[in-house]
Amino acid sequence: MGTIHIDLFTTLDLVAQAPGHPEEDTEGGFPFGGWQAPLPAEEVGQAVLKGMEGMDALLLGRKTYDIFAAYWPHQDDVIGRLFNRIPKYVASRGTPALGWAGSTLLGPDLPSEVRTARDKHESIHVIGSLDLVQTLLHERLFDRLNLWVYPLVLGTGKKLFGGGEVPANLTLAEPPVTASNGAVLLRYALADGIPATGDMRVTVNE
Q: Which Pfam families does this chain map to (predicted)?
């Protein structure tokens, strides 16, 4: 069985909507599309490339797939060659035509389809695809949660945890990486069980 990575750029208030450009996702009248662009950092690009080592499949929601399919087939760089070579699995409630080579539409039983895909690959990455991410979090169908957290608070927009998640424990898989723009990379691994509770009140012996 392979590993499913969820890779996201988020703000401090965990908004992950449309980091790349203003037209990326305007749902809900989101006014901050492209919020990541004014904060470039070489360390982010280096860490993103390192995180893709061993990737042998992409799992994408329909919106992210459409954005990627319009861009990456025309790019002859490290990421473009990787994305164009590996299989792409697409979650959609419709029946879109998928023109990007190597693309497969997942069936209506999404959890079962994702588990089948995970059995075929060593390292599947989910990039963006917030609606799909909500399903994966609810089903505990992920192994790594990789977050670039940026020093911004937007106060509006789609969030990583949009509701409906099941309680889960996570462990820090690698030491955090800090970029010169103030962003921090946190890589978490899904752990067994659910969060425990306790009592931190101090008992004073009289």
A: RibD_C
pLDDT digits (tens, 9 = 90+) for 13-58: 999 999 999 999 999 999 999 999 999 999 999 999 999 999 999 9
pLDDT of residue 114: 97
- CATH classification of the domain holding 9: 3.40.430.10
Q: Phi then psi for 88, rounded to 5 degrees?
A: -120, 120
Residue numbers in the chain where pLDDT is lower than 70: 203-206
Residues linked to residue 198 through DSSP beta bridges, in sequence order:
none
202 part of a folded domain: no
What is the C-alpha separation between 62 and 99, in angstroms, rounded? 13
Decide: 40 and 154 in contact? Cβ < 8 Å: no
31 falls within a domain = no
Task: Report yes or no on 147 lying in a domain.
Answer: yes
Q: What is the pTM of this model?
A: 0.94
Please check whether residue 97 lies inside any domain of the structure. Answer: yes
Domains held by the chain: number? 1
Please give the C-alpha separations between residue 127 and each of 94, 185, 192, 200, in angstroms, as whole numbers: 20, 15, 24, 38
